Amino acid sequence: MRIPLQHLRNADGIAAVEFALVAPFLILLLMGTVEFPRAYGISQGLEKAARTMADLISRGSLNSVDDVYAAGAAVTFPYDTSAARIVLTAVGVYAKGQGLVARVCSTAARNDTAPAVDSELGDPIPSEAKAGARYVTAKVTYRYLPVFGIFPGLDQLTFTKTVSWPVRSTGANSLAETVLPGGKACKAT
After folding, report:
1. Which residues contact 171 (CB under 8 A, 6 or more apart)?
2. How does DSSP classify residue 173?
3. Which keywords accompany this UniProt record (predicted)?
């Protein structure tokens, strides 16, 4: 059986129609394989940055927080997180009535507003829930900037990572305390 030439010419257009139907889904899939792992990578990088900064300030021998911010940025490389809002806080734990309260002793911030010294932060972290305890927190907030603006909600995605870290005691100084530059040591009571 012979197929007339006119039917063969009509079949050439079928491939174009099939491609036109499938191509948008393939392009969307490609964009998703770029965008979602990138968002996850930035989220994990911000967690590592907060941990790194909290660890560095917990050592107590700090002259400048610029190096701490730089270390946080290095951990998130290759993503540019220079617009991230960072708050570093040295915290003291105090008795309040029958319970305990965490208070800001000294603080530093970049691209954000630092909490006021002596302001209450609420309950202390469980590992430091005793009067006189000291710890630090690093809070990083970053608004995600998508590569492709086609996925709903990603342009409104904001990551906030907060890490609390106990103050390190070194050698003979078993009552180590972190004082951020420009701040003062925690009040005794």
Report:
1. none
2. B
3. Membrane, Transmembrane, Transmembrane helix
Q: For residue range 158-182, list pLDDT tens digits in order.
A: 999 999 999 876 545 445 678 888 7
Q: Which residue has tokens 């490389």?
A: 77
What DSSP assignment string belongs to 119-171? -EEESPPGGG-STT-EEEEEEEEEE---SSTTSTTGGG-EEEEEEEEEPPPBT
Confidence of residue 149 (pLDDT cuts 50, 70, 90): confident
**Residue pair 90/177 in contact by the 8 Å Cβ criterion:** yes
* Integer Cα distance of 68 and 72 in angstroms: 6
Provide the b/e sequence for 88-116 (b: ≥16 CB within 10 Å). Answer: bbbbbbbeeeeebbbbbbbbbbbeeebbe
Token pair 């570093």 is at which residue? Answer: 88
pLDDT at 12: 67
Q: Tell me if the pTM is above 0.70.
A: yes
Task: Quote the CA–CA distance of 80 and 68 in Å, as a whole number.
Answer: 16
Three-state DSSP state, 180 = coil
